[in-house]
Amino acid sequence: MTLDITAAVVNEEGAEPELETIELDDEPREDEVLVRIVSAGVCHTDLSTADNFYGGPPYPQVLGHEGAGIVEAVGEEVTDVEVGDQVAMSYDFCGECPNCLSGQIPYCENLYEHNFLGERTGDGTSPLSRDGDRVSGYFFAQSSWAEYSIANERNVVRIDDDVPVEIVGPLGCGIQTGAGAVMNALEPESGSSLAVFGVGSVGISSVMAAANVSSCTEIIAVDLNGDRLEKAAELGATHTINPEETDEVVEEIHEVTGGGADYSIETTAVPEVLRQAVDCTTIPGECGLIPLRPQAPGDHRGRRGAGAVHPDARGALEAGPVPLRRDHHPLRVRRTPRRHPRRRGGQHDQTRAEHEQPLTAARLAD
Predict the structure, then answer these.
(1) Which of 56, 57, 213, 292 has minimal CB crowding within 10 Å?
(2) Any idea which fold 2-172 has?
(3) What are φ and ψ of residue 244, in 5° steps?
(4) Is 205 in a helix, a strand, or coil?
(5) Exposed / middle / buried, residue 227 (Cβ in 10 Å: 0-12, 13-18, 19+)
(6) Count of CB atoms within 10 A of residue 30's CB?
(7) What's the confidence (pLDDT) of residue 183?
(8) Does residue 58 carry a pLDDT above 60?
(9) Worst-scoring range by mean pLDDT, 259-268, 295-304, 320-329?
(10) At a CB cut-off of 8 Å and minimum separation 6, what does 133 contact?
(11) What's the CA gap between 30 and 51, in Å, rounded?
C-alpha cells in the first residue's frame, strides 16, 4: 500500500528543500517501524548532504535524521516498540560487525552504507516515490523531513509518554553528539575545567553534560553569538568569551583556569578555532574535535582531516605540526608528553592507562 504524504524534497545539488506530495510505501517490513513524525531537527549534516558533500543519496532525496513521533505500525519481528509508543529516531547500524557486537555502535564498520545512501542496505530499495519514480528516502533509516517515516527497529528509542515528543528530535544527533563527547570520549574528572568552542546545539549539550554529569568546576563557552553565550551561562557555563570582543581568547582561558583548560571541545570546523582549542589547554590537556573538514595540504600547520560526526568521539592527534590521525569519528587531541600529574586541587590525575580504560559499570559506581 502507498500513502500520500507531504515531505521536504531536495531535487538537485544545492537546491532548497521544497514541500511536495509524494508516495510512501507504508507497509513496514519485518524489522521496520512506521512513524508519524511530530517533530524533526535540522542538522548541518542534512544541509551538507543536500549539497552533495558526502556523496550521499541520489536526487531527489528526502533528508532528516533527528525525527520524533508516534509509532503507527510495526513489522512482525519488532519487539522493542509497539503501536502508540512515542519514539525518538537516531542513526542506524548493522548490528553484526565486530564493533557493533562489542558494543561500540558509533564505530559500526557499515555506518555510511546504513545512513548516507538513502536506501535499504538489504536490497537497495527506498520506501519513497514520486509519480512512480524513486525518491531517496531511507536517510539515516528515517528521512524524517516528512509527515511519515519508515525506520528500522534498531534506530528508534521509546520515550515515556509524559515527555513532550515535540522537543526530543535533536536527541537523535546534535544533543547526543555534544553530550557524548564529554561523557563518553573526554570523560573529564569532577573538578576539572572545560572550554567549549561554539555553543550551538552540539556545544551547548557539551556544556550541560559538563555541568550536570561531569561536575566540571570551570566551563568556558566561546562563541560569536551573544544570545548563545547568554543561554550557555543559564545552562552551566561559568565563563563566556566572545571573540569579537577580545583578541586574547586563549590568554583569557589560561587566566580563568590558572594555566589552561584540562579539556576543550571544538565544534566549528574552523582551523583557526581548532588552533585556539588546542592552545587553550594545559599540558597535559585534551581537546575533542567534533566536526572536521577537508584542508588543503599545509593548512592548519600540517593538519588535514575529513569530516565526521558522532557522540562517542575518539581518536588521536598530537598537538604539534603533524598529520591528523583519526578513527571513524570525532577526534581526541592530546597535548603530549604526559610527564607530570595534573593538578586537581591537590589530587593527582589518573595515569594514562587508567584514563584509557573503557567506561564500565564499576567505573560508574566509583
Answers:
(1) 213
(2) Quinone Oxidoreductase; Chain A, domain 1 (3.90.180)
(3) -75, -15
(4) helix
(5) exposed
(6) 10
(7) 93
(8) yes
(9) 320-329
(10) none
(11) 33
* CA distances from residue 321 to 248, 288, 335 in whole angstroms, order as listed: 22, 17, 12
C-alpha 12 chain-centroid distance: 26
3-state secondary structure of 111: helix
CB 136, CB 130: distance < 8 Å = no
Q: At what angle do helices 201-212 and 226-234 cross, to 10 degrees?
A: 20
Beta bridge partners of 287: 264, 333
Place of cell 516528512: 146
Q: For residue 53, what are the contacts with CB-CB under 8 A and spacing of at least 6?
A: 307
As a whole number of angstroms, the distance between CA 304 and CA 301 comes to 9
Grid cell locating 313: 568521539
**Measured distance CA(74)–CA(33) in Å, rounded:** 5
Q: Where in the chain is the domain with CATH 3.40.50.720?
A: 175-365
CATH number for region 175-365:
3.40.50.720
Q: What residues does CATH 3.90.180.10 cover in the chain?
A: 2-172
- With the C-alpha atoms ordered 50, 56, 60, 62, is the resulting torsion angle positive or negative? negative
351 vs 103, higher pLDDT: 103
For 140-199, what is the HEC assignment? HHCCCCECEEEEEHHHEEEECCCCCHHHCHHHHCHHHHHHHHHHHHHCCCCCCEEEEECC
